[in-house]
Design goal:
Layout lengths: L11 H14 L3 E7 L7 E7 L9 E7 L9 H10 L7 H6 L3 E8 L2 E7 L7 E3 L9 H14 L6 E2 L3 E2 H9 L8 H10 L7 E2 L9 E2 L14 E2 L3 E2 L11 E4 L10 E2 L5
Antiparallel strand pairs: 1-2, 2-3, 3-5, 4-5, 6-13, 7-12, 8-11, 9-10, 13-14
Length: about 260
């Protein structure tokens, strides 16, 4: 197959850049298999790459063309930052549980091509979403949750008191911008904007409720103070589709890997 056409699903520009990348780096890419992205807007392909280093053997790799939207376009840098943020200076958690970037990302217009290691370094890993109906699911979820809290965040941080509004605003970050999906949904589905302080339910005798995305000025959440707002490391879009776990029921769940760290 012509190398310039095997990645045509990424688009003509990305396919041409990947062809150049293979030639310049002497890293041929073979057997691309297109993967389900779960609605993230990205395009993913599993490939085999043979590195130019004589000591390297052929291995699997994920090529990801990030969506050009705000969060996804920042994924390469955020993944680097996450892997460099070491709990108590110890590198074992990022090395074991955060997906690896094998090569530097490559810009494609307003998006990025990423070259990621295959989670778990083998083909026995599946997303947590594929085992939701299995009896082991509660135990798996509990073990991963404990690890995220204790192993990824043994060095919790506290910067003093802050209002509840400031804390929620910090969590939501750019999602509060007027054209982000959250603000658009509130406007289109609820008929509200981010400046509407109170929601009035249609039920008889129902009292008004604070608008949870109105977080500026004299909003209701500004009247409440958090004495101990904790900060730490977190996956900004943690759901079962972004956690890879071993497929076999009796495998070690401690091998789980977080992917898609775009937030």
């Amino acid at each position: 197959m012509d190398r310039s056409t095997q990645f045509a699903k990424f688009g003509a520009r990305a396919a041409a850049l990947l062809d150049q990348w293979q030639q310049q780096n002497h890293r041929p890419l073979t057997a691309p298999a297109w993967l389900d992205t779960g609605g993230s807007g990205a395009s993913l392909a599993s490939v085999f790459v043979r590195d130019s280093d004589p000591g390297r053997t052929t291995r699997r790799m994920i090529i990801k063309l990030c969506s050009p939207d705000g969060d996804s376009s920042m994924e390469p840098g955020r993944l680097i930052a996450a892997r460099r943020s070491l709990p108590n200076g110890e590198s074992s958690f990022p090395r074991a549980h955060l997906v690896e970037q094998l090569y530097d990302p490559m810009p494609v217009d307003d998006a990025w091509l990423m070259f990621q290691g295959f989670a778990g370094n083998d083909e026995t890993m599946v997303t947590l979403s594929t085992i939701l109906r299995q009896r082991r699911m509660p135990g798996v979820a509990g073990q991963i949750t404990r690890s995220l809290l204790a192993d990824w965040n043994p060095d919790e941080k506290w910067d003093g008191e802050m209002t509840a509004a400031a804390f929620v605003s910090e969590l939501l970050d750019r999602r509060l911008e007027p054209e982000e999906p959250l603000a658009v949904w509130v406007r289109d589905k609820l008929g509200l904007d981010l400046e509407t302080a109170w929601i009035r339910p249609g039920r008889t005798n129902a009292g008004p409720l604070p608008n949870p995305v109105h977080l500026t000025g004299s909003c209701p959440l500004a009247e409440h103070t958090l004495d101990y707002p904790m900060r730490g490391r977190a996956h900004g879009d943690l759901h079962p589709g972004n956690i890879m776990v071993p497929k076999e029921p009796d495998a070690d769940i401690g091998r789980y890997v977080l992917i898609d760290l775009s937030r």
